[in-house]
Amino acid sequence: MNLYDSLHRELRRFEPGRPGSPGRVTVYGCGPTVYDYAHIGNFRTFIVYDLLHRHLRRRGHEVEFVVNFTDVDDKTIDGAAAAGRSLAEHTGPFIEAFLEDAGTLGFLPVSHHPRATEFIPAMVEFVGRLMDAGHAYRGADGSVYYSVATFDDYGKLSGKGGEEDSRRSRIDAAGFAKADPRDFALWKAAQPSDREVGAVWDSPWGAGRPGWHLECSVMVTSLLGDTVDIHVGGEDLLFPHHENEIAQSEAASGRPFARFWMHVKHLKVDDRKMSKSLGNFHTVRELVEEGHDPAAIRWVLLSAHYRSELNFTAGGLADGTEAVQRLLDFRRRMTEEVEGPGGPAAGAATTAAGKLAGRARRHLDAFDRAMDEDLNVPRALASVWGLVRDGNAALDASGGVSAEDREAALAALAEMDGRLGVLNLAAKTRDVDADTERRIREMVEARDRARKARDFAVADRLRAELEAQGVRLEDTPAGTRWKRVR
User: Fold this and answer.
1) Cα(401)–Cα(353) distance, rounded to whole angstroms?
2) pLDDT value at position 277?
3) CB 3 within 8 A of CB 40
């Protein structure tokens, strides 16, 4: 399995780095800052987390995956103050909303969802180690700062932040309180707004709160150890956040912080940066409330390679809806149209038995190879459609396939969807219970009788009623097929 490592700027072969536990993989993904609902740009990144999680498991690894909640920083404090609530009261509902949205999009459960506020004592201890080692100092404003000049490798991830960049530095500028403009806050002295919302903790350097960069380093090392196998996040976090994580973590432990760094490209909406002022700002729950299928949203968000920019459009969402429906139709057709007990169709299927099975296995192998090559989803999807094409061709040619072929095709589809995660998610909104299915079949049969009697007015009315209920009809030589669509 090869992954593109942002630190080395090249594809590298990935293998777990734990001699005592060769199958165990540790992954840390920077999670949401819970001052508001996460938007689809955030979820483009989180979909990649889920894709990586699923594929590592497919490769047989025991995955310990951590995705944090940043529940104390400037944005959460400002939001809580504006709402007249405590920090916990303000962030709690947004954490629950994120977990609901993740469930809506079919995410696998991760190992830990730590909140930064749960690790304050560990953060204080971490800062103390940096102070003792001469990597941190107390600034003129009472805050504690990391001294970038004491870490020789600063900038190795991003190429930014060297001496020549100090005047242009974007890192946590705090006027003249710092010795160097590049230095960043580890521990921020308490401000009135912090006290107002209850975001203040005691420390040897006075009351205050942790800096944002510190939080992730401490959650990583507390839960996964000094070196994590894979650290993943959005490309906007590469600098300064991830650069600062490396500096403080490696200064504290003397060990590499992460063996692989993965960064997900931005999402645009209708070729523009997503913005509330532009009216193209979307959350998952808003899209679902508008009637869009969660499986289609998931499909669109994962359909581009994670290192390529993704353009989210209404047309793309409609295409995603149709793509998911095609897969559902194929699975339903392959499940239902097996060889019969006798007759030409069964004979033809038996004669060709095993041919589709071999093709299905080759398509699955190609899918796996594509996913092994830096999660190349576009190439993997070509294998999915190859399976659908060959499966439908086999069904069309014979009127049914052998049990061996059917099982192989369905197994390959299931393995592919084990990474994509769309079919069972779609089935939640498109499958029907037994009573509803019986009623639909009765209406379909009544329509068939009306058509035979040439009572087309009744037939058209029944079709319209079914379509209004989300049931699409397909008239074939073998009879009328129906399917539930969103």
Assistant:
1) 7
2) 74
3) no
What is the per-residue pLDDT across 34-71, written as a single tens digit (0 to 9) for each? Answer: 999 999 999 999 999 999 999 999 999 999 999 999 99
DSSP string, 310-363: EEE-HHHHHHHHHHHHHHHHHHHHHHH-B--SSSHHHHHHHHTTTHHHHHHHHH
pLDDT more than 70, % of the chain: 90
169 close to 158: Cβ distance less than 8 angstroms:
no
Please answer whether residues 184 and 211 qualify as being in contact, where contact means their C-beta atoms are separated by less than 8 angstroms.
yes
Q: 378 to each of 213, 308, 388, 399, how far by Cα in Å?
A: 34, 11, 16, 31
- Phi-psi region at 275: left, alpha or beta (left = phi > 0; alpha = psi -120 to 50): beta
Rounded CA-CA distance 30/354 in Å is 46
Residue 169: φ, ψ to 5°: -60, 135
- Sort 342 into a burial class: Cβ within 10 Å, 0-12 / 13-18 / 19+: exposed
**β-bridge mates for residue 146, sequence order:** 136, 184
Structure tokens at 457: 């007015």
The structural architecture, per CATH, of the domain 2-264 is 3-Layer(aba) Sandwich (3.40)
Residues 6+ apart with CB under 8 A from 5: 11, 12, 260, 261, 262
Calpha distance 255→275 (Å, rounded): 40
DSSP, collapsed to helix, strand or coil, labels residue 396 as helix
CA distance 214 to 128: 12
| Res 350: pLDDT | 45
Helix (H) or strand (E) holding 476: strand 471-476
DSSP secondary structure letter of residue 37: -
Q: What is the pTM of this model?
A: 0.87
